[in-house]
Amino acid sequence: MKAVIPLAGKGTRLRPHTHHTPKPLLKVAGKPVLAYILDDLVELGVEEIVFIVGHLRDTVEAWIRAEYPNLKGHYVLQEVQDGTAGAIALAEPYVDEDVLIIFADAVLEVDYGLTRTLGAEYGAVLWAKEVDDYQRYGVIVTNEDGTMQRIVEKPSEPISKLANIGLYYIREHELLFEGVRHTLANDPGPSGEFYLTDAFQYMVDHGSRLITAPVDGWWDAGKPETLLETNGHLLETGRGGVDEEATVEGARIVEPVRLESGVVVRGGTIGPNVTLERGTTVTESELRDTVVGPNSEITASKLHDSILGSDVKISHTSGSLLVADHSLVAGEG
């Protein structure tokens, strides 16, 4: 089994951070979003992955090669951002067997074992999560047996609350790519893009049975507020703690937090939901719902709902900040 991971997007909702850091490499609980996905695939036994690259492609490729040297990676440039179907079309020359398609916008907790136990009568698995705010998503309308009938983008009526999360196992890969080519040969959707979900509809219309499967956890990291929520979840479920080589002097720690090696905290209050990456120093400050990159300095500040890059310096500042690497924010102290 192979995998296809589209990584070409610019991550506009996470600017300014994504001006210099590819969205899949932004960290939650001290680990890039893409690393959570790749670790799951390695554990599953996937050895060959097609990466659809674009924005900051050199950074993405260098990181993957350095962190996962045993993976056989193919890097295919998506020159035109024409949608999910256009991205997956680029992988066709490399896919000659069952394939996982994973969009790297979230940390996922799913049973990948379904790829080994799927009944012969099914052509694909679409993982889906039941949500209350169904209007924000493409939702899967199912038959009584749980197979896909159709996918509706951002419905105004509650025809389904099963959100399409962007994770698929495709057994009938030849039919999938036939559907992708059919989609690209027709007019694009309202946004001017071609949707992979139209290729799934083609599969269904040509007799394939696409079964939906539940999701244990789907933690979005595609915009600041959801990235911070995901950070908090991961801190609560195994990624939190204070490293033995971190220093805390006279400060109040409110769990969950993650203080990495070399972090120094003097006075103030840290937490809840705060990640301080290695080498960062925080002095007489209050932080909650905040992620801070490595080697940064925060002094006499009160921050919440903030994402700070590496090597930043913040002093005498209050509020919510989105600050990219190597930045300086100084209030009046």
Q: What separation lies between the terminal Cα atoms?
A: 58 Å
pLDDT below 50 for ≥5 consecutive residues: which ranges?
none
Provide the CATH top-level class of the largest domain. Alpha Beta
Q: Tell me the number of structural domains.
A: 2
Major sheet: 13 strands, parallel
Number of DSSP strand runs: 26
Named at the architecture level, the CATH assignment of the largest domain is Alpha-Beta Complex
Radius of gyration from CA coordinates: 21 Å
Q: Which structural class should the secondary elements be placed in?
A: alpha/beta
Topology:
Elements: E1 2-6, E2 27-28, E3 31-32, H1 33-44, E4 48-53, H2 57-67, E5 72-77, H3 84-89, E6 99-102, E7 106-109, H4 114-117, E8 124-130, E9 138-142, E10 148-153, E11 162-170, H5 173-184, H6 196-205, E12 210-214, E13 217-220, H7 224-239, E14 241-242, E15 247-249, E16 252-253, E17 257-259, E18 264-270, E19 274-276, E20 281-292, E21 297-299, E22 302-308, E23 313-315, E24 318-319, E25 322-323, E26 328-330
Parallel strand pairs: 1-4, 1-6, 4-5, 8-12, 14-17, 15-18, 16-18, 17-19, 18-20, 19-20, 20-21, 20-22, 21-23, 22-24, 22-25, 23-26
Antiparallel strand pairs: 2-3, 6-11, 7-13, 8-11, 9-10
Helix pairs in contact: 5-6
Q: What is the gist of this entry?
A:
This protein is α/β, with parallel strands linked by helices. The protein folds into two domains: 2-220, Alpha-Beta Complex (Spore Coat Polysaccharide Biosynthesis Protein SpsA, Chain A); 240-330, 3 Solenoid (UDP N-Acetylglucosamine Acyltransferase, domain 1), CATH 2.160.10.
